[in-house]
Design brief:
This protein has 231 residues and is an alpha/beta fold. 41% of the residues lie in helices and 21% in strands. The chain contains 8 helices and 8 strands. The chain has an 8-stranded parallel β-sheet, with helices on both faces. The structure holds zinc ion. Zinc ion binds next to loops. The site of zinc ion (ZN) has 5 residues, from loops.
Length: 231
């Protein structure tokens, strides 16, 4: 496992990324791509089955791939996994594979990264059923405060959608959430993580350095301390 250094910009969810100076990345590996971590990259990885790429014919193959390859230390989280009502197979199949990944996250002591579009009731219902010890990190969040607080009250963390978080209308939401529950990401968009930190620190009314320190603390809480506790 690699660790972020103090002063790094943590980009909690990215795809196909290349290592960058002063940026600590969690690169997301999707099982249907069959990609494995590059152990020389200095990056950490999440690995899972994205609901868009799931169907009746590949569910077992993809789950097998994740089970076989997510045990290594370079894989710090399971996911992105989740629910999408706009794209992908039936919600029943999505739920089945999501919950298998949630159980694997518990078995391996690795947090779960969540993709969720218009399926919050399903997500919360799965959380109630599984009662995970591992924190769940909802990436790409662009919802309302009430929803964010509902998720946070269930021990989840929120990473904002890169394109939403830089808009003026996101400021109110950012200010209203506990800063020890948030993360920032580029999601493979090519967005500049440094610009995102600048905007969000301004919204909260702290310096970029203070925000980096806070996100480092959040990172430690979710990825280091929690996983050590379960070993
Ligand atoms: Zn993603």
């Amino acid at each position: 496992m690699h660790y972020p250094h103090p002063g790094d910009y943590i980009d909690i969810h990215n795809h196909d990324s290349t290592p960058a100076r002063d940026v600590f990345i969690i690169d997301n590996l999707m099982a249907h791509e069959g990609r494995l971590p590059d152990l020389e990259s200095g990056m950490n990885y999440s690995m899972g089955i994205h609901p868009w790429f799931l169907d009746d014919t590949n569910q077992n193959i993809l789950m097998e791939f994740v089970r076989n390859n997510a045990t290594g230390e370079a894989i710090t989280a399971i996911g992105e996994a989740g629910f999408d009502k706009l794209k992908g197979p039936s919600i029943d199949l999505q739920r089945l594979i999501f919950e298998q990944q949630a159980v694997l996250s518990e078995e391996l002591g690795k947090p779960l990264v969540i993709h969720c579009v218009k399926a919050w009731d399903e997500l919360v219902a799965s959380h109630k059923r599984i009662k995970p010890d591992m924190p769940w990190l909802v990436h790409g969040f662009r919802g309302k405060k009430e929803l964010a607080m509902q998720l946070i009250s269930r021990n989840m963390y929120i990473s904002f959608w890169f394109d939403f978080v830089i808009r003026p209308e996101a400021t109110k939401l950012i200010r209203s959430l506990p800063v020890d529950r948030i993360f920032l990401e580029t999601d493979g968009s090519g967005a500049d993580i440094k610009e995102i930190y600048k905007k969000v620190s301004g919204d909260i009314g702290i310096t970029v350095e203070e925000l980096k320190n806070q996100i480092l603390v959040n990172y430690s809480n979710i990825f280091i301390i929690k996983s050590l506790n379960t070993e």
